[in-house]
Amino acid sequence: MHRLAHAAIGLLGDATELQRLHQCAACRWLFLDHSRGAGRRWCSMADCGTEAKKRRYVARRRELMAARAPRPAGGTPG
Ligand SMILES: [Zn+2]
Predict the structure, then answer these.
(1) The domain containing residue 55 runs over which residues?
(2) Position 58 in a domain
(3) Beta carbons within 8 Å of 27's beta carbon, 6+ residues apart
(4) pLDDT above 70 for 78
(5) How many domains is the chain partitioned into structurally?
(6) How far is the CA of 54 from the centre of ligand 1 (A)?
(7) pTM, two decimal places
(8) CB–CB of 55/39 below 8 Å?
(9) Strand locations in the chain, DSSP E?
């Protein structure tokens, strides 16, 4: 815990590091983005990245299915 606090203080004193500090779009954890272009949105691409993509895929699929859903039963044929 002390080491974490020390790291946090060091981070707050470093503007460039602070600019790399992001909040994960999935789990709300803070993470440092050291990737080129700093376009990361998740603390871990393997965990939250996949999870978020999966969720978006499912949501999108649900929308498509809803749009494509057959008309409610009882409609007049033809
Ligand atoms: Zn995350």
Answers:
(1) 44-68
(2) yes
(3) 43, 47, 48
(4) no
(5) 1
(6) 14
(7) 0.54
(8) no
(9) 21-23, 30-32
The number of CA neighbours under 13 Å toward the Cβ of 10 is 6
Distance 68 CA to ligand 1 centre (A): 33
The dihedral built from the CA positions of residue 35, 38, 40 and 44, taken in this order, carries a sign that is positive
- What pLDDT is recorded for position 40? 87
| Within-domain flag for 11 | no
Q: For residue 22, is it within any domain?
A: no
Q: Specify the pLDDT at position 61.
A: 95
Q: Domain for residue 21, yes or no?
A: no
Identify residues whose C-beta is under 5 A from ligand 1, the ion. 24, 26-27, 29, 42-43, 48
C-beta atoms surrounding 48 within 10 Å: 19
Confidence grade of residue 37 (pLDDT, cut at 50, 70, 90): confident
Reading the block at residue 30, the tokens are 């803070």
